[in-house]
Each structure stands twice: as structure tokens, then as C-alpha cells.
Amino acid sequence: MDQFPSLSSSYSASPQLLSIDETVTLIPGLPNDIAAQILSMVPYSHHSRIKCTCKAWSAFLSSKTLISFRHHFHHLSHLLCIFPQDPSISSPYLFDPHNLAWRPLPLMPCNPHVYGRCNFTAISLGPNLYVLGGSLFDTRSFPMDRPSPSSSAFRFNFVESSWGQLSPMLSPRGSFACAAIPNLGKIIVAGGGSRHTLFGAAGSRMSSVETYDVGRDEWVAMDGLPRYRAGCVGFLVESGEEREFWVMGGYGESRTISGVFPVDEYYRDAVVMDVKKNGCGKWREVGNMWQEGERARLGKIVVVEDYDGDGPGVFMLDNNDIFRYDMVSNSWQKESGVPRKAPRNSSCGFVGLNGELLVMTFLKGGDATESRRPRQQKRVGSLLIQIYNPRKKTWRSLITKPPFHGLLDFNTAVMCTIQL
Questions:
Q1: Which positions fall inside the F-box domain (predicted)?
Q2: Residue 310's pLDDT is what?
Q3: In this predicted structure, what is the pLDDT of residue 309?
Q4: Most buried residue, 181, 213, 265, 321, by most Cβ within 10 Å?
Q5: Is 403 left (phi over 0), alpha (psi -120 to 50) or beta?
Q6: Radius of gyration over every alpha carbon of the chain, rounded to an integer in angstroms
Q7: What are the distances in angstroms from CA 316 to CA 120, 350, 357?
Q8: Are 40 and 20 in contact (CB under 8 A)?
Q9: Sign of CA dihedral 41, 42, 47, 52
């Protein structure tokens, strides 16, 4: 039994409900409620280091009460979760940019029949991390060298530090749009297909949409997209009581060059669905967001919540420039240029964290110590993170040594953010 009882409702409970078992001493000489507040201020990325101090600290730092304290007293750490590749064979990592701290997560449960999972989606809802769908190879399918979409759903519980398998999606899919609806405790997914990173423009496309109810562990089908759409991005726009689920970009049909080489037909538009408390409304279509020849496809997208007080800010990284989406004119306006430009065709990570935009690239080379390491143990070089604050219009940067033992390709790595 948990020595530190968890809250029975939300994380916004009053201080009186944040009670601590008085039979356990957290810090000698201090009341437990004060000691709990002090411990809750320790960055989440450092918890694994101090758990071994004593049994009382280990129990408290592994309890739901800790999460409750951190939410109530606004001690949350804004963390980035990076999946270098298939999470059943390569550990995901939490990264704390504020403290430059890395922490590995346990491997996801392994299925001996499937391998090479990619194009899955990772998303957080509350203190939990969800890994949905993807494309993979299945030894039970024929032909075995062709990828298949996955309907699997997993959840990582940060309190118990363990993975659990959830009810599968109604339709298997990878490369799909996804967004969390925190106030309703739901996750919505749309579109997708079976494409794998090893197979160019091949693979299926789909238009189906479904929502996941976290409390019921249940998937429910919704009205499908107006047309097939894979490789798209999704996000939620909230204004007062109104919620909209946006699906942008992606690809549908493909054409061939000289009747041999498949080439995707990328979309320049978006579609929007009204999200209601008891369901979802119909889809409406938004026209093209750029002119023919302006760009070939949608770049990497991140959303900054409460950007201008009336809704989120939607930003796109296109080569070394950042653009902001103007919903009124349905167009992309240049916001800023990345100070230290990445070489053309190199992979860049782009993510929104705590109201800022992070552009991540690897610096070439390494120190002499790294060059003398055996090849199998050699780590990648330093990670340069350039951070843009869209409200202040300012840039800053930091450099960290990532724990990866191989080159991280941001074009295939999966990333999401979480607050703990």
C-alpha cells in the first residue's frame, strides 16, 4: 500500500487534502508537509538520484502524492521525451533542458513477432505517456519483408515507472495526426497509413478517425476525414468552451515518374472538426495555405499554448526559417530565422516546450577522448539547442552531451513533451 495517500480527484486539490503520513519522517526536525514541499521542488530529472537516500524519500518520490504536490504548488518540470527508434529495443529518454539532465525510461514491452516499429505517435496526457500505432514488420504476415500498420497502444505510468498495454485502436495506423483533449480525458487520432521509413512512397492511406477515452480504456469511431490523408499533423485549438481539432498537411494519392518512381502528392490545405463534450461534429475544409511553387510540403509543426491570450500559436520550421500560421488569412508568415543554420539536408529536431520553440541539431566532431573510444561505445557529438521565445522575439542557446550511443536522426525519431 502507498505510504503517502494519493488524491482521489484532480491535482488542483486544496492544501488540506495534500496530507502526508505522519508516522513517516521525511526530514528530521521539519513537519512532513513542509518537508514534502521541499522535496517536491527537486527537478523531476534528479529524483532517481536522491531516491536512494532513505526509504521514506524513495516511497514519497514514487507516490501519487508527489505528483499532486508538484501540480498544486506549480513545481512542474517541463520535459522532453525522445524516442531514438523502436522503444521495445532502444530506451526512450527524458531530457530536462533547464537542468541539462537526461534520464532513461524502461523499454516498452517486447512482442517477439514484430520489429522495426517507426512512425508511431507519442503523446502525454496528465502524468502519463502514451505510445500509439506505428508501422512495423510482423513475422506472422506475408510477405514478411513488407511493413504493416499497428493498432497497439501503450501507456507509461510515471508513478509506478512501468508500461501497460491498452485496448488497441479500431484501425491500425502509422504516420497519423493526434491530439490530446485534457479537459475531456480523451485522445483523438486521424488518418495515417502503413508507410515505413524503409519504403519511400509505398504504403496505404486511410481517412478513419477515432477517439480514446482514458477512463474507460475504449476507442470510439468518429466521422472520417474528407479524403485519405497520411503523414499529417494534428493539434487542438481551444477558445473558451469551443474546441477544434485541426489536421494539416500530409499526403494522399501518389503519382509515378516515368511510370516507375512513386512520388507523393502533398496537401497544402487543412481540415477542422468541432470537438464537443459528448462527441465531435462535422469536418470543414480550410483552403490552401500557400501557393503552388512556394514550398513542396508542410514543415515540422509545433504548437505553443496560450500564445496570444486568445488561442495557441502554430509554428513551422521550414529549412532554417520559422513561420507562424495566421488563421485569419490562412497563410504562413515568417517569424524568425535560426541564428546558427544547420547544413542543408541535415536532420533538425523542432519542438515546443514551456512556451518556447526548440531547434535541435548535432554539432560535428567530438573531443579527443571520444575519438579513442571503441566504436561500439562511442557516443554521438554535442547537441546544440537553439531556443526561440515567440513572445519576446529573442534567441538563446545551450549545448548538452546526449546519452545516445548512435547517431540520432530527427527525421525518424519521435518526440513529445510532458509536465511532471
A1: 28-65
A2: 67
A3: 66
A4: 181
A5: alpha
A6: 22
A7: 20, 9, 10
A8: no
A9: negative
User: Cβ(320)–Cβ(338) under 8 Å?
Assistant: yes
Question: How buried is residue 24: exposed, middle or buried, by Cβ count under 10 Å (0-12/13-18/19+)?
Answer: middle
The residues near 96 (Cβ < 8 Å, ≥ 6 apart) are 43, 44, 45, 77, 79, 80, 102, 103
What the block records as the C-alpha cell of 27 is 526530514
Backbone angles phi, psi at 280, to 5 degrees: -130, 150
Spatial separation of the C-alpha atoms in residues 178 and 181, rounded to whole Å: 10
CB 176 within 8 A of CB 189: yes
Domain spans, the chain: 15-72, 108-298
What is 108-298's CATH number?
2.120.10.80
Q: Which residue intervals of 80-209 are DSSP H helices?
A: none
CA dihedral 336, 341, 343, 347 (to 10 degrees): -60
User: In sequence order, what are the beta bridge partners of 283?
Assistant: 273
Closest listed residue to residue 349, CA positions, set 44, 135, 93: 93
Helix axis angle, 32-40 relative to 64-72, nearest 10°? 80
Closest-CA residue to 316 (of 279, 274, 373, 359): 359
Retrieve residue 89's grid coordinates. 529495443
Backbone phi and psi for residue 281, each to the nearest 5 degrees, phi listed first: -85, -160
pLDDT at 92: 95
Place of cell 529549412: 319
pLDDT 10s digits, 99-131: 999 999 999 999 888 999 999 999 999 889 999
Please choose, from the candidates 399, 358, 365, 369, the residue with its C-alpha nearest in 3D space to the C-alpha of residue 380. Answer: 365
User: The C-alpha cell of 293 is what?
Assistant: 511553387
Q: What is the DSSP string of 135-158?
A: EEEETTSSSTTS-EE---EEEEET
Grid cell at residue 99 = 537542468
Q: pTM of this prediction?
A: 0.88
